């Protein structure tokens, strides 16, 4: 699980650095060749990761003419219910 998480988080980071914006979907990371495929969550055994997004904001709230900065994915988490053997929720991975 840690390897898949690290690979996906690196892809999100690299996309953001290269494109100067966050990716809007995991599928977009594949289409842009930052990932070959969306890996399966090892707990659910499906590519059903829960994405964490940031809200769109204006660059300058005092100047309403500025466009919104596009929202997008900032992190991913397991979508599995329950906890690991140490009691940590899967959703915190």
| Rg, nearest Å | 15 Å
* Cα end-to-end separation: 9 Å
Structural class: alpha+beta
Percentage beta strand? 5-15%
The helix/strand series, from N terminus to C terminus, equals HHEEEE
Q: Which strand order do you get reading across the main beta sheet? A: 1-4
Which ranges are low-confidence, i.e. pLDDT below 50, for 5 or more consecutive residues? none
Number of strands: 4
Basic shape: globular
Number of helices: 2
Percentage of residues assigned to helices: 25-40%
In short, what is this structure?
The chain contains 2 helices and 4 strands. It is an alpha+beta fold.
Walk me through what this model shows:
By secondary structure, the protein is α+β, with helices and mostly antiparallel strands. The chain has one domain (2-80). It contains two helices and four strands; from the N terminus they run ααββββ. The strands form two sheets. Strands 1-4 form a two-stranded antiparallel ribbon. The longest helix is centred in the first third of the chain and has 18 residues, at 2-19. The N and C termini lie close together (9 Å). The model has no long low-confidence stretch (mean pLDDT 86).
Write the layout of secondary structure elements.
Blueprint: H1 2-19, H2 26-31, E1 50-53, E2 57-58, E3 68-69, E4 73-77
Antiparallel strand pairs: 1-4, 2-3
């Amino acid at each position: 699980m840690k390897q898949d998480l690290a690979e996906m988080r690196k892809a999100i980071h690299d996309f953001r650095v290269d494109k100067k914006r966050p990716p809007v979907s995991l599928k977009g990371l594949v289409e842009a060749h930052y990932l070959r495929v969306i890996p399966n969550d090892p707990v659910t055994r499906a590519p059903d990761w829960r994405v964490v997004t940031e809200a769109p904001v204006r660059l300058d709230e005092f100047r309403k003419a500025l466009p919104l900065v596009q929202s997008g994915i900032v992190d991913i988490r397991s979508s599995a219910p329950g906890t690991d053997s140490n009691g940590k929720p899967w959703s915190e991975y």
